[in-house]
């Protein structure tokens, strides 16, 4: 199997525990710190474990380099680990002030601060609308441009304050959803090319799965889930996949209580015919 978002190895440990010494588990992640944790977590497994620092858009190349032509299971748990959001080097949190970076993969070149500095007002508005699905995108973009003319916006705190002001929410309180949530989502998607990576993974999957092998994808927002849903449906239509989930599987109440961030998760599974 290949876990293309191995993270801290939580899912891989559960699946890997079911594999014998004859099984192989390949884990990919773009984040070296996550891979290090996964390496420790998966060390006790009986199966062969191969961990690679790679973007899942390259999953076909990774498996080919390992001499693995086909797999029985592809797992993707999209997004980020909680540790990455709290990591001050990554700069994804609006609750604490951090450099406005957002690169999960440190080898990427363009940061969120670069986008906020370089995009013109219309491009910023389009990005916030398209990837953040925020209807106030034009107003937010205008406030960002006005602000950056006075001083550069280089931290998450500065950006969160500008967006809060644009949306006229009184500061000081911590509402369930911060007003900058959608803007931050938009920048994160753009910085990390999240939707393009997912498209590449979806395109590669049918060629990598053995007959009756499955692909399971957990997504956290409707842009991702929409891509997965349309891809699985189209391939069902072509006779390549059988849908194992007609509707996405949501988390249980217990899961949400144990892990609040799981509340927006959607799991879809397809099986190669
Ligand atoms: C939600 S976490 C996965 C948690 C994992 N399932 C576990 O049980 O610990 C998502 C992980 O995917 C990684 N990631 C995000 N986009 C990626 C991509 N395009 N290619 C490879 N890894 C990616 C992140 O660095 C993060 O470690």
Describe this structure in words.
The chain has 273 residues and is α/β, with parallel strands linked by helices. It has two domains: 2-78 and 194-272, Rossmann fold, CATH 3.40.50; 88-191, Putative methyltransferase TM0872, insert domain (DNA polymerase, domain 1). The protein is 45% helix and 15% strand. It has a seven-stranded mixed sheet, with helices on both faces. Helix 1 (10-16) links the parallel strand 1 (2-3) and strand 2 (24-29). The model has no long low-confidence stretch (mean pLDDT 93). Bound molecules: S-adenosylmethionine. The site of S-adenosylmethionine (SAM) has 20 residues, from helix 1 and strand 2. Residues 4-5, 7-11, 28-31, 34, 55-56, 77, 79-81, 104, 197 line the site of S-adenosylmethionine.
Sheet/helix structural class: alpha/beta
In round numbers, the mean pLDDT is 93
Question: Any idea how many domains?
Answer: 2
Instruction: Let me know the largest β-sheet.
Output: 7 strands, mixed
CATH superfamily of the largest domain: Vaccinia Virus protein VP39
CATH architecture of the largest domain: 3-Layer(aba) Sandwich
Report the principal-axis shape: globular
The percent range for strand residues is 15-25%
The largest beta-sheet arranges its strands as: 3-2-1-4-5-7-6
Rg on CA atoms, Å: 20 Å
Bound molecules: S-adenosylmethionine
Residue share in helix: 40-55%
Distance between the termini: 17 Å
Number of helical runs?
A: 12
CATH topology of the largest domain: Rossmann fold
CATH structural class of the largest domain: Alpha Beta
Write down how many β-strands occur, each being a DSSP E stretch of 2 or more residues: 7
Order of SSEs: EHEHEHEHHHHHHHEHEHE
